[in-house]
Amino acid sequence: MAKPDHLHFFIDPSRCIGCQACVHACTECDTHRGHSMIHLEYIERVESVQTVPVVCMHCEQPTCAEVCPADAIKRSGDGVVQSASTPRCIACGNCVVACPFGVPELYDDRQIMMKCDMCYDRTSVGKKPMCATVCPSQALFFGTREQIEQLRPMSAPVNEFRFGNQTISTRVLTMVPRGVASRQPLVDVTAAMDDRPARRAVMLRVLPEAPVPSDAYDPYENVPL
Amino acid sequence: MARLPVDELRIIEGFGPHLSRMSGLRLSTSAEPERLVKTHCCFCGQQCGIQLKVRDNQVIGFEPWEEFPFNRGMLCPKGVKRYLQAAHPDRLTTALRRDPAAPHGFSPLGYEDAVAAVAGRIEQIQRTHGNQAVAVLGGASLTTEKTYLLGKFARVCLKTPYIDYNGRLCMVSAGAANKKAFGIDRTTNPWSDMVGTDVIWVAGSNVAECSPITTNYLWQAREQGARIIVQDPRITPAARTCDLYLPVKPGRDAALFAGVLQGMIEHDWLDRAFIEGFTSGFDQVAEYCRQWTPQRTAQVTGVPERSIRLAAEWWGTAKTSFLFHARGIEHHSNGVQNALGTINLVLASGRIGKPKSGYGTIVGQGNGQGGREHGQKADQLPGWRDISNPEHRKYIAGVWGIDEKDLPGPGVDAYELFRKVDAGEIKALLSICFNPKVSLPDSTFITRCLEKLEFYAAIDFFLNDTARHADVVLPGSLQEEDEGTVTQVECRVIKINKAVECPGDARQDWRIVQDIAGALGRPHGFTFNGPREIFDELRIASKGGVADYSGVTYEKIERQMGVFWPCYSEDPETGQPIDHPGTPRLFERGSYNPVARGNGPFYFPDGKARFNVAEYRPPVDDADEEYPIYLTTGRVVSQFLSGTQTRRIGPLVDQYPEPRVELHPRLADTLGIEDGAWTTVETRRGAITVRAMVVTTIRPDTVFIPYHWPGQKSPNRLTVAAQDPISKIPQYKVCGCRVRRADGPPEYAALLESQQ
Amino acid sequence: MPTVGREHVRASAWGLIAAALLAVLIVVGSRNLQHFDAALVGYTFATLFAAFGITYRYAIWLQRPPTRLYWRRGWQVFATTRFIRNIIELLRRVLLEFALNRFIFRRGRARGLAHWLIMWGCIIAAAITFPLVWGWIHFRTVPGEIDVYRTYVFGFPVQDFHVESFTAFVVFHGLVWASFLVIAGVMLAFRRRMIDHGAVTLQQFGEDLLPLILLFAISVTGLLLTASYTWMRGYAYDFLAILHAATVIVTLLYLPFGKFFHLFQRPAQLGVGFYKESGTRGEQQPCVRCHRPYAPALMVRDLITVERELGFSYELAATPAAHYQHVCPRCRRALYGLAQGALWRDRVATAPTARGSDT
To answer: From the CA of A67, how many Å to the nearest CA of chain B?
Structure first.
């Protein structure tokens, strides 16, 4: 059994509200029950409530698998990069340090790396992964390209990421503004190297006449103490 | 005297809160569920559809219910882990009696004996002090059937006017404002109407944490082009990416609405035809608003003038819009006025009663809507009827088979009820589904009142903080142990289905209430065989009322995945029996309702909505020189209300273990407080010490503490018991406080686990 | 693809050497095949093939850049730092993790037990069978004492024991005991593979079920052989012998390809342990973004080397000295969120570049 080809995982971190429903739901999956494989973190809580949910992006050419000395990480035919194979994984942690998205985790006591396998127990039988099913903001979405296109006219999915000189293609898609996607369909991750999360992030408007609100950066600037 | 039988630490040791975690069948990857029960989450007014996995009379997990239209499988962390509340080590499986000699303060009691003891004491106190000496407190997490039965029980069996419920802390400001403006207390549109609107105004609602599923509606609306305005003293997740953020100073909401409306009036961004044809009272409102120039509004509310102008422009010029509000503007001694302020904005725009245009209040408690409609509220009878209205009284007395004269009159609100305990007028209390010791403001006073009670009986599934004072505790039912209906945020009546049996001696709450009635020798009207029978009587009792459920049946709920009330069994226009599908959207032009009788879409005899002057009044116990900082309180996403359930679920406790006080770095710097430091927050009522959380996402003149914890961690020791004069909602969202670095960790830090 | 060719040639050479070495040992150990049982020739050839296959695959595996590097590093660290302590530590780990399967028990009790039973059953069976097949061990009655056996190892007499002694019973039924262990373990493993939803999802017939079936078949046919000559006067013995031989030979041929190869890969876990430990003692790599250490500097350096060898180029163009590997995993996740968020925040979304000037 395999994940149906017409169903895809789409992420829009800008929608995330950090509620952790995905983290809790992830522990309910049968391939990693009791352990959450999803990372959900505040980028910098002091500055902002911005959070980022990270699941495995299921790279076309997974760095984790390539650098695995035990050859323990396999990609199934449907493009899902599986958790380390239990008989092989020697718990070296190379994948943890190598993954450009910071996904795999090492469980030292059991000498095994585990990572998001897109809820293979569910996706391989045509269901949605737990995280994307429950996600209240639908920052995590699982469905067809037609669905996402219809639901999100302002956004478009991309699956290329730049890390310095390296470009990585993934199976999991990330939503970016439609205009951006048509000009340069990739996310330059390392370009954000010096960014800090903004307290307020005014979303891009599609309507060109919409004025940019002036409260964007420190709305409390003039609050006296 | 309902004092704690033994030291509270010993009660906690025996009865928790302890934590439940995934283990056994719940952790097993090979346990097949015997069945999936389609039901709803027990937390919050969204009432998301969920399927519970059941095996061996145990809820072992959940499966999303993707067909249910409101949430389509989505759940927040509380929904995901709600199944861990069942088969909990703290679950009460026998009745308990207060026993200072027992190691944990209570010893088990046979169920029949417990019921007899409760009835005996009630009887004795009523004989000595009169019927009115006994009061009942209910809750808005109960099914509508139970709330109906409880209201009937108080008035028919106990013959006391004193019944109220914890919805008093939740929806009453919205309800009162709705009643004044629309003649009906309901969100006007289904949530799906949000998607496709031009502007959405979120007034005082931390949607991301308090009603997470609504976030997807917001973001969907944004994808379809909506601009989002968020009004909040904190940059909540929704505020972070909204289009216009209005950083309102706590307690200044009515001023803000008046200022925005003034802006709309100045630019004539009004729907004059609608105002003329469908409303009354606009002129007085316009007159009042005249003083609220942008400058003055900015000065009072702390919202920059340019943002006020922009809000007026966006709201005024939109073609379609949705406005909703929640406790942020309602938990005020000016709560009704605040809510009326939003309604004035909606009415002035004329954008109501149409697809993609509406108004809503976000219900906080599980059955916050249904729980206030059918009779456990001090001033109401089933069907949203008025207990002071002779016609309404007559109808309900008829349904209940009693003489109208024997039906008590209006009681008092939950807080006033405690004042009556304090005054010695109320001697005995029966409570269910309410934890006032944690949830009411100035809770030290509440504790004192509890101690004054001659007799206190609590029905609950866990021994909550208030029930620790009880003389007798009756083991009630968890939501998954019973069936019944609730009415969720959109006013969709939905069905809770039973998944498992009550453990041990525990009983379904309606049985316990009926057993007490039986033991009192007053069983008449309390011989239902199940929730379905109660619901059938409720349908008759609500018939002809504004909240008319007469056409709702369990079968129709299942078939339609919920039924929006009003749902008639007889066409209100013709009187003919009909198969009415329910009313998803109110106030549509040309719609008929039994109050207006064709005169217009609103629920007044003339069919017109009412503008009400929504006057700004400064908060009671406002910040001043002595207490210069605003204290505001609220929720976190992983906890619910007083935490009786959620503070017992391990993964939810892990997510946010203990209350922290949020403060801005600018404030923290002047006070010498760094992130994580023990910090004392003090008001005129008391002081608590919690850890600091230094964040730039809150107004620098305001601090925030979430309210789900008891005792020395409870910000309700600080909040003020000031209440709205109309709705009687307490002013949880603002009071003056002072903040300082604590000398050291508080006493509780070494004694209690984080959830206790 | 000449490089691939070279890899294979090298690996084949190693394989042939290993097989040849085994052949020589068989000849020597059985004293020029004097003690070699001709009936077992099928088994012998299967083991020779297995020796070739396993070595070939091991060699191929070792030639992958990461494997090569960590294999080398493991030995280096083991041999050059704190050698004595390492030996003790090695013994400890061999006992805990290998002999006792501690890490597998931590994944699940039944799972650990299944593996432990299968593992020890196989070890015992192999320890008995291979030396016998290769003629390295044989038994002979002691001249003059008809009921005393003498064990010969590599042709040298080692030990005598009475034919009806307890030792004799235990030794001659060694395979029976082994098969009991294996059968019990296989049953437990099968149970898990039938009812555990996670296992059912991920398992593949060839990779996960076939090995269990093979082990089960070997054990059962072996037991039937014993049953046949003990209680059934050799009923169907020849057929059973062929059937048993077939199951064993198929398993031996399968060894290099399937799940059983982990027997040979797994010891790398020990080397990695020393590598990681030495890394922890050494310098730690601080993250260039949050400045918190996140991994041993040696590990990060090695990884960068390996990535380059594999053709990845995570170098940060702007600052040539910097490498994306110098960002900790947590910051990588943050960067993903920030980069995506920046696209939405962009005020000049109509400008030709994706990112705005206000970030």
So the answer is: 31
Radius of gyration of chain B (CA): 25
**What are A17's two structure tokens?**
């509200």
Q: Are B146 and B526 in contact (CB under 8 A)?
A: no
A195-207 pLDDT, tens digit each: 888 888 765 554 4
pLDDT band at C320 (very low <50, low <70, confident <90, very high): low
Half-sphere exposure in the Cβ direction for B510 (13 Å, CA): 25
DSSP state of B99: -
| First vs last C-alpha separation in chain B | 24
8-state DSSP, C96: I
User: In B183-278, which ranges are continuous DSSP H helix?
Assistant: 207-210, 214-223, 237-240, 253-266, 272-278
The answer to whether residue C319 scores a pLDDT higher than 80 is no
Architecture of domain B629-751: Beta Barrel (2.40)
Q: Which of B747, B750, B741, B738 is nearest to B677 (CA)?
A: B741
CA distance B496 to B499: 9
pLDDT at A211 over 60: no
pLDDT at C346 over 80: no
Residue C231: CA atoms inside 13 Å, Cβ hemisphere, count?
Answer: 4
**Nearest one of B253, B638, C329 to A52, comparing CA atoms:** C329
Low-confidence ranges of chain B (pLDDT < 70): 1
Q: Which domains does chain A have, with CATH numbers?
A: 8-192 (3.30.70.20)
Residue C30's pLDDT band, with cuts at 50, 70 and 90, is: confident
A106/A113 Cα distance (integer angstroms): 4
- CB of B29 within 8 Å of a chain C CB? The answer is yes
Across B316-325, b (16+ Cβ under 10 Å) vs e yields bebebbbbbb
Q: How many CB atoms lie within 10 A of CB B131?
A: 16
Which CATH number applies to B172-361: 3.10.450.50, 3.40.228.10, 2.40.110.10, 3.20.20.150? 3.40.228.10
Q: Is the pLDDT of residue A176 over 50?
A: yes
Q: Which pLDDT band, with edges at 50, 70 and 90, does A215 fall under? A: low
With beta carbons under 8 A apart, name residues in chain C contacting A96: 295, 329
CB A108 within 8 A of CB A114: no
What are the helix (H) ranges across C255-296? 262-265, 268-281
Contacts of C122 in chain A (CB under 8 A): none
Q: What are the sequence ranges of the domains in chain B?
A: 21-85, 95-170+368-481+497-527, 172-361, 629-751
pLDDT for the residue numbered B499: 97
Cβ atoms of B535 and B485 within 8 Å: the answer is yes
If phi > 0 it is left, if psi is from -120 to 50 it is alpha, else beta; for residue B504 that is left
Question: In this structure, what token pair is assigned to residue B284?
Answer: 């007085």
- For residue B408, give the 3-state DSSP assignment: coil
Beta strands per DSSP E along B482-561? 484-487, 492-496
pLDDT attached to residue C350:
33
C92 touches chain A (CB under 8 A): no
Within 10 Å of residue A178's Cβ, how many Cβ atoms?
17
- In this model, does residue C82 exceed pLDDT 90? no
pTM exceeds 0.90, yes or no: yes
Residues of A in contact with C329 (CB under 8 A): 96-97, 99, 102-103
Write down the pLDDT at residue C359: 27
Q: Domain B21-85, what fold?
A: N-terminal domain of TfIIb (2.20.25)
Chain B CB within 8 Å of residue C197 CB? yes
Task: Using alpha carbons, select from B538, B545, B532, B732 the residue that is nearest to residue B632.
Answer: B732
Q: What is the pLDDT of residue C74?
A: 85
C-alpha A112: how far from chain center: 22
Q: In this predicted complex, what is the ipTM?
A: 0.95
Could you read off the pLDDT of C275-315 as tens digits, one per residue? 888 888 899 999 999 999 999 999 999 999 999 999 999 99
